[in-house]
Design goal:
The complex is a heterodimer of chains A (241) and B (661).
Chain A (H helix, E strand, L loop, with lengths): L4 E8 L10 E8 L6 H12 L18 E4 L2 E4 L11 E5 L6 E3 L2 E2 L1 H12 L20 H11 L6 H4 L2 H5 L5 H12 L8 H8 L13 H5 L6 H17 L1
Parallel strand pairs in A: 1-5
Antiparallel strand pairs in A: 1-2, 3-4, 3-5, 6-7
Helix pairs in contact in A: 3-6, 6-9, 7-9
Chain B lengths: L1 E10 L3 H12 L4 E5 L15 E2 L13 H11 L6 H21 L9 E7 L2 E7 L20 E2 L5 H15 L4 E3 L1 E9 L2 E9 L5 E11 L20 H7 L6 E2 L4 E8 L9 H4 L3 E3 L7 H4 L9 H16 L9 E4 L5 H7 L1 H11 L8 E10 L2 E3 L12 E3 L4 E2 L11 H22 L9 H20 L6 H15 L6 H17 L14 H25 L15 E2 H4 L1 E6 L9 E6 L19 E2 L4 H14 L3 H8 L26
The chains are: A alpha+beta (241), B alpha/beta (661).
């Protein structure tokens, strides 16, 4: 493969600076084999422009920190190889979240707020006795829960959601996925009537327009389409109960 | 001046910090957690393979107990750990895993009946007892005599951290994100909290608390190749070091994981080998049985890493444009197993290497992975030199791991330590010592000092680049303070790091903004990182023996006679050029398991003179005292050191005597 010169068009804006105007800034980087956007952005900051803001933590596709819009599509920058992209790469911050600066957005506060609204934790009647043998769980059920639990709260599904653009309080696929996760968990004591109280409205399950951008972009390949359809059926049933 | 009060200030929102916060909240105190990143992005999330706890539900774990877990941990540490802490830990690990089960971790479960597994490269049928169906299962890991590592596929850290994060939210624990502690506020041997910088606005504040807990993880990013997340720069240990009072323990004890991918250094879990994966060389030869015929690929991590490096030195490495490596081969495990139990491994291979581990071998080599050293504390998690300063998890050295940590003992330690230290923090807060005296002048002084440091960097006319100096530091650590160590390398490392520390006072930065400014952050962290690097290099130079992961080519024997001790590092005054080293002895005459041979390679130990007598004494007690509780009390009592609520015996599944059940 002949070596390419990459042109990065990167969104720049500091919302705390009254003089800052949102704009795209251009950088060029020589591509090397196996190069990821993590390597590209780190090099730009170290060698060309120390003012550039972005977020990487694990740099292994595990922690969900580095979601951004890569050539029009939300994704995890750390594991995106430049060889999978054309020579011109446009990077924008995830929409739908508070902008901290440049490519850095505040997903943490948003996700915590979501968990608080949904009470997205196991709700039990009594605390466990940690000395005693644990309650058994069917191995298949445990695997199903983990399958849903693999969400990394990166925010890609919110960024790709048309409805989230229109409704600020829409819980989005990440929220639906959490509900399905706890609903599937035999340790959680909530009934569908309880869940209906939380998500049975237009900011919840009945607001989803089934555009399914979430399904297209989820970096963990979660079955969001299936979960949303399933949850809507259950909530419609609950509404007549 | 912004001043924020809480009962317990916790720096770091990984598993250890969050569990401590929940414990404090459950006892009625107000915790406040600070984190560089959103809690669920902490490095705990990257733990893959699992958490050791001696539940013994799987047939391959039958007969497991706290006793065997304890012995494996002590042997793994090469007798460098605090055995009392190891006892406390192994007693609590089953409780921790069960608590997490109740809180929501979807632990992989025993499937009763026959199943196929791969052991030593062979497919074998094992029969799981039907009565254990649905209990928490375990996989094999290195250096353990039983299958003891509880797991959730290979996303164990993710499952644990998300559950713990959810519980912190459920308990109303506030987590302030993008906040960095710059200094501990202290006077007269009492810690009052920390000076904290908001990484978005740049504002400094004083966060005052009855108790301060540092749970910031390890210091892997001092090396140029590490499996660690980018945030693991050792800043918690540096906070303690810069007090000039608190001591760091065993900083030279640094683990290299055998299987990180080349070149990015991303971890491939030990579960790969635990589940039957093999290591191969340039000729496709499985070489570990040549070196370690008993444990093979599942020897302790320090041993496997050294054997791999040795094999590469012998010319058996695979050449690549990123240097030499070896192969991790999990193709024998089959697609179904990999898709179910090693899915992160598969995803990482696909995205970062463009290969499919179901049919392709994975390029790996030993890479910095874990910091056994850290802020020295007692068994309660408190610094003996600074009242009110606590630490737990990888940031701390209460000394569970000695000179080598067993795989699966790190995430287990985080939650166990959070349970223990959280209770003792609460006890401290409830005691007369826990009252927060008014400390106005000293608080002002510390905040102004940190503001002064930042102002000095922002206005400096220095011409040293933080990026360039940092790369040099990383290279020194990689080349001279790595897997194999010797005097001349370490001497050069100390001198080069000292030079870098001097130069780091003349940093010049191009970005002079006071708010979010990554270059400023890099600049103020750099001297702290170099100071830590110096404690490591000096500790390694002084320790003229080989123990666990600290391997001296010029002193290959383990020397219990002269070096059965813990290194303590302190940096008395800011203007000092080097840390001071002190030592605290490990006492053979109080050990439950007196120093012995780990069983790797050939025996190469200079014995401690007290060892034979202690062996006899322990053995005599074992023979003469029949009651297990009384026996433990006579040999090495530990239950009284645990918080009362955690002293109960752990119930276990009783395996049937007939294999048909």
């Amino acid at each position: 493969m002949s070596q390419r010169t990459l042109t990065l068009q990167i969104f720049r804006h500091n919302p705390r600076d009254p003089d800052s105007q949102p704009h795209l800034q251009s950088y060029t980087v020589e591509e090397i084999p196996g190069m990821t956007l993590f390597v590209v952005l780190t090099r730009i900051r170290e060698d060309q422009d120390p003012t550039l803001s972005f977020d990487f933590v694990c740099r292994a596709g595990i922690c969900g920190s580095c979601a951004m819009v890569i050539n029009g599509r939300p994704g995890l920058a750390c594991r995106t190889l430049t060889e999978s992209l054309p020579t011109t790469i446009t990077l924008l911050p995830l929409p739908g979240f508070e902008l901290i600066g440049d490519l850095s957005v505040n997903t943490g506060r948003w996700m915590r707020g979501l968990s608080e609204r949904l009470q997205a934790w196991i709700q039990q009647l009594a605390p466990a006795n940690v000395d005693a043998l644990e309650a058994p769980m069917d191995p298949d059920v445990a695997e199903q829960i983990y399958e849903i639990d693999r969400c990394v709260e990166c925010g890609c599904c919110i960024a790709a959601c048309g409805n989230a653009r229109m409704r600020e309080d829409f819980i989005g696929a990440v929220g639906f996925n959490k509900v399905v996760r706890f609903r599937a968990d035999p340790r959680d004591t909530r009934s569908d009537a309880d869940w209906y109280e939380i998500i049975g409205d237009d900011n919840g399950i009945f607001g989803c327009l089934t555009l399914l951008g979430c399904q297209d972009v989820c970096p963990k390949g979660l079955s969001l389409q299936t979960q949303i359809a399933f949850l809507r059926r259950k909530m419609v049933t609950a509404s007549f109960a | 001046m912004k001043v924020v009060y809480s009962d317990v200030l916790i720096i770091g929102a990984g598993l250890a910090g969050l569990r401590t916060a929940v414990a404090a909240r459950q006892r009625g105190f107000d915790p406040l957690v600070l984190s560089l990143v959103p809690a669920k992005r902490s490095h705990s999330v990257a733990a893959q393979g699992g958490m050791q706890a001696s539940l013994g539900n799987s047939v391959r774990g039958a007969g497991d107990s706290e006793d065997i877990h304890f012995e494996d941990t002590v042997r793994g540490s090469d007798w460098g750990c605090d055995q009392t802490v190891a006892r406390m830990f192994t007693h609590l690990a089953p409780k921790a895993v069960r608590e997490l089960a109740a809180w929501g971790v979807a632990w992989s479960r025993v499937r009763g009946g026959d199943r196929q597994v791969v052991i030593n490269g062979e497919s074998v049928t094992i029969h799981e007892p039907l009565g254990a169906h649905g209990l928490i299962t375990a996989r094999d890991f290195g250096g353990t005599r039983k299958w003891r590592t509880c797991y959730t596929s290979d996303g164990t850290g993710h499952a644990m951290l998300y559950t713990m994060g959810d519980q912190a939210i459920a308990h109303g624990v506030p987590v302030l994100e993008r906040q960095e502690a710059l200094a501990l506020i202290h006077e007269g041997g009492r810690c009052y909290g920390a000076v904290v910088r908001d990484l978005i606005t740049g504002e400094l504040g004083a966060y005052l608390a009855r108790a301060t807990v540092v749970a910031t993880g390890g210091y892997g990013r001092l090396w140029s190749a590490s499996t660690n997340a980018l945030i693991n720069e050792g800043m918690g240990a540096a906070l303690a070091l810069e007090t000039g009072v608190a001591r760091l323990g065993n900083m030279e004890a640094v683990q290299f994981h055998p299987t990180a991918i080349v070149p990015t250094g991303i971890l491939m879990t030990e579960g790969c080998r635990g589940d039957g994966g093999l290591l191969r060389d340039v000729n496709g030869h499985r070489f570990m049985p040549d070196y370690e015929p008993q444990k093979k690929e599942l020897a302790s991590r320090d041993v496997v890493s050294r054997r791999m490096a040795e094999h590469i030195r012998a010319g058996k490495g695979v050449q690549s444009s990123y240097g030499e490596h070896l192969w991790l081969d999990i193709t024998g495990l089959g697609a179904a197993h990999i898709d179910r139990n090693l899915r992160e491994v598969k995803e990482i291979c696909q995205y970062f290497l463009g290969i499919d581990p179901v049919k392709d071998w994975i390029p790996v080599r030993p890479t910095q992975h874990y910091s056994m050293g850290g802020i020295r504390t007692d068994y309660r998690g408190e610094s003996p030199w600074l009242r009110g300063l606590f630490s737990c998890g990888e940031a701390a050295c209460w000394d569970l791991h000695g000179f080598n940590r067993l795989g699966g003992n790190s995430v287990a330690e985080t939650v166990v330590a959070g349970m223990v230290v959280g209770e003792y923090v609460a006890d401290f807060c409830a005691s007369a010592d826990g009252d927060l005296p008014s400390a106005g002048a000293i608080v002002q002084e510390f905040v102004e000092r940190e503001q002064g440091r930042i102002d000095a960097i922002l206005t400096s006319s220095g011409d040293e680049s933080p990026t360039a100096l940092r790369r040099q530091m990383e290279t020194v650590m990689m080349d001279r303070v790595g897997l194999f160590r010797k005097a001349d390398d370490l001497e050069r490392a100390v001198s080069e790091l000292s030079d870098l520390l001097r130069r780091s006072h003349w940093l010049g930065i191009r970005n002079r903004r006071r708010d979010a400014n990554p270059e400023l952050v890099a600049a103020y962290r750099l001297p702290r990182m170099i100071k830590l690097a110096l404690t490591i290099a000096m500790g390694a130079l002084a320790r003229t023996e080989s123990r666990g992961a600290h391997y001296r080519e010029d002193y290959p024997e383990r020397n219990d006679r002269d070096w059965l001790c813990r290194t303590l590092a302190v940096w008395p005054a800011e203007e000092d050029a080097l840390p001071l080293l002190e030592y605290e002895p490990l006492t053979v005459n109080t050990m439950e398991l007196p120093p012995g041979f780990r069983g790797y390679g050939t025996r190469n130990i200079i014995d401690h003179p007290d060892t034979p007598a202690r062996e006899t004494a322990v053995e005599t007690t074992r023979q003469t005292v029949a009651d297990p509780t009384a026996r433990q009390e006579a040999i090495m009592p530990f239950l009284h050191l645990l918080p009362e609520r955690y002293r109960g015996a752990n119930q276990r599944f009783v395996h049937p005597t007939s294999p048909e059940n």
